[in-house]
Write a structure and sequence with these properties.
71 residues, mainly alpha, elongated, single chain
Length: 71
């Protein structure tokens, strides 16, 4: 059975203060883990694009800035 967001919020209101704190810590951990996965996926995708020659790499900021002015 699936609950709506509003139902979940109401259930959370009924928790004890210590349970709310534990839930808060779990949510923080889940969000950090999710963001790490997202960063890892983006890094993998970027490396694949680089290997396929779809993006350029620059050895210096000056080279990068020069490329922007010539595109």
């Amino acid at each position: 059975m699936s609950q709506t967001f509003a139902e979940i919020v109401e259930d959370v209101k009924q928790l004890s203060p210590s349970e709310k704190e534990e839930l808060q810590e779990l949510l923080k951990k889940y969000l950090v883990d999710e963001r790490r996965r997202e960063i890892h996926e983006n890094a993998d995708a970027g490396m694949k694009e680089l290997r396929r020659g779809e993006i350029k790499s620059f050895s210096s900021v000056d080279d990068f800035m020069d490329s922007l002015s010539h595109d």
